[in-house]
């Protein structure tokens, strides 16, 4: 039984992600955007560099912003792309969107619409409305791809459902186009994006490999089968529910003539 408790705790930890320890410095995005503290690019760089070694996705994103805009460091698009890519590969939608913006703009790296669409799709799949709107506009105007109004309206609807006002206009007016559908790289940040950073800071910045969770579940089931309380926690309720549904769906017995 003690082993089961340990496995359950491990599973809960894997699901909840890594929390932000109290002894860690203030997240660098706060200094970068001046959120709750005075804006200080040098301090943001110092903290981001310190935390980057601990695989902190916000720090990777902030380093990308600093190198992209030449703030506290010299402008270096290669370094910006490197840090953005690390954060994007760990699932941070803001980094995925910035990668897409850079590939669409071609700032010092050459324009690559296919790569931009790839990152936009990843961010859009995670319900990032700015990526959904950008995909809609790409399909409407045929930017580096064939025009597809059906695809455009699909993405506009998804963005509009989350409150993206320009997406609402785009749905109402089929001729509406937006030459600035990718946000610039300024230090301003929408409230929605700040909420993403805040949520990430508070514990969802670490996504463990799913295989670890599957292993924990498999161990738990194996221990139940081996224990004297066989099936009592997970397997038995599933079997009973399945049997009950089969019984409910079975045809009524024939009445004798």
The level of helicity is 55-70%
Oligomerization category of the chains in this entry: single chain
Major sheet attributes: none
What is the class of the largest domain in the CATH system?
Mainly Alpha
What does this 3D model show about the protein?
The chain is mainly α. It has three domains: 1-17 and 208-247, no CATH class; 21-112 and 197-202, Serine Threonine Protein Phosphatase 5, Tetratricopeptide repeat; 127-186, no CATH class. It contains 13 helices and no strands. The protein has helices spanning 2-16, 28-33, 41-52, 57-69, 77-89, 93-105, 113-125, 129-141, 149-160, 165-172, 191-204, 210-226, 235-249. Helix 3 packs across helix 4 (57-69) and helix 4 packs antiparallel against helix 5. The longest helix is centred in the last third of the chain and has 17 residues, at 210-226. It is globular. The N and C termini lie far apart (56 Å).
Properties at a glance:
single chain, 257 residues, mainly alpha, Serine Threonine Protein Phosphatase 5, Tetratricopeptide repeat, 3 domains, 13 helices
Layout: helices, strands, pairs:
Blueprint: H1 2-16, H2 28-33, H3 41-52, H4 57-69, H5 77-89, H6 93-105, H7 113-125, H8 129-141, H9 149-160, H10 165-172, H11 191-204, H12 210-226, H13 235-249
Summarize the structure.
This protein folds into three domains: about 1-15 and about 210-245, no CATH class; about 20-110 and about 195-200, Tetratricopeptide repeat domain (Serine Threonine Protein Phosphatase 5, Tetratricopeptide repeat, Alpha Horseshoe); about 125-185, no CATH class.
């Amino acid at each position: 039984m003690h082993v089961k408790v340990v496995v359950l705790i491990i599973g809960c930890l894997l699901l909840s992600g890594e929390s932000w320890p109290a002894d860690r410095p203030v997240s660098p995005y706060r200094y970068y955007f001046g959120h709750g503290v005075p804006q200080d690019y040098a301090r943001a760089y110092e903290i981001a560099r310190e935390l980057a070694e601990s695989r902190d996705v916000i720090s990777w994103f902030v380093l990308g912003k600093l190198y992209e805009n030449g703030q506290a460091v010299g402008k270096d698009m290669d370094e910006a792309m490197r840090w953005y890519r690390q954060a994007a590969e760990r699932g941070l939608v803001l980094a995925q969107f910035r990668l897409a913006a850079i590939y669409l703009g071609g700032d010092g790296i050459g324009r690559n619409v296919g790569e931009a669409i790839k990152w936009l799709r990843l961010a859009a799949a995670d319900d990032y409305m700015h990526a959904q709107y950008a995909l809609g506009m790409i399909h409407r105007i045929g930017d580096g791809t064939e025009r597809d109004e059906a695809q455009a309206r699909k993405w506009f609807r998804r963005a509009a459902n989350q409150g993206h006002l320009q997406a609402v206009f785009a749905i109402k007016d089929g001729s509406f186009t937006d030459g600035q559908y990718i946000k610039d790289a300024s230090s301003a940040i929408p409230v929605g994006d700040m909420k993403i950073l805040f949520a990430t800071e508070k514990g969802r910045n670490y996504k463990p490999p799913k295989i670890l969770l599957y292993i924990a579940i498999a161990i738990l089931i194996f221990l139940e089968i081996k224990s004297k309380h066989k099936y009592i926690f997970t397997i038995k309720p599933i079997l009973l529910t399945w049997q009950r549904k089969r019984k409910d769906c079975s045809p009524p017995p024939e009445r004798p003539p």
